[in-house]
């Protein structure tokens, strides 16, 4: 059961600035010079039939928009995979690299000294590598997930979302105060919102406006019984997500992380996006004001628009 073909997967880097002007980047996407990836990663890419296209590094895009490599205090890696770590070389050595402790313990030294490591030694040797502390004074829980209050003022949290890889992280970005609204940057905790929804906490509504998904002015309503029937025809409960996750280092943790994210996802003050979420292209303004413009309501069932790709 699953999708019949892998769709186009974008990979995003998030530029985050708090009210005091402190700037960080969450993930760096893929680097354009693929020949400089670690030998183990190049070998993996040689064995799969993926078409990889990277026109610009994230640094190039920032540079074109007037930013310098010294403008950021830190780059946070959600995890060590090649499509997230980008190329750190152009960033100032004053820019810290923030990772999960297990990533540092598992993959250092980098591939300049150890062929199996996916991380270039030059990414960390010239800068501070900071391990996120989920037990220190800035730690807290968001739902049942461990969190770290990065700026210490409740504007940005790093989130413990284990499972997809060794030391996988997500993040929670505050988008408004009163009401308190947040965008969850899920990174690779999911690879389709159909791995998250529906859930026992967020069941299928009485009708899903699947017309809205392609055009906000178009109304095509799909009643809940049709969606439920569709789920039942695939031997799934109506309150089960559309898809099972398949990409993970520890699938038990992948499932428990998704469950903990579902416990936040029902709340209309949260909106979850993920690292390869094609639906968010060009919607940064809408994401920041999602509670004001019914963005969540419009986009939350986007996976149903892909239902014609499903097979039993
Ligand atoms: Zn990825």
Automatic annotation (TrEMBL):
Alphabetical list of InterPro entries matching this protein: MBL_superfamily_lactonases (IPR051013), Metallo-B-lactamas (IPR001279), RibonucZ/Hydroxyglut_hydro (IPR036866)
Keyword presence, Metal-binding: yes
One Pfam family recorded for the sequence: Lactamase_B
Annotated SUPFAM superfamilies: Metallo-hydrolase/oxidoreductase
Residue ranges of domain Metallo-beta-lactamase in the record: 10-225
The entry's keywords: Hydrolase, Metal-binding, Zinc
Signal peptide (residue range): none
TM annotation in the entry: none
Entry's family note: Belongs to the metallo-beta-lactamase superfamily.
Protein name listed in UniProt: Beta-lactamase-like protein
Species name: Aspergillus cavernicola
Lineage of producing organism: Eukaryota, Fungi, Dikarya, Ascomycota, Pezizomycotina
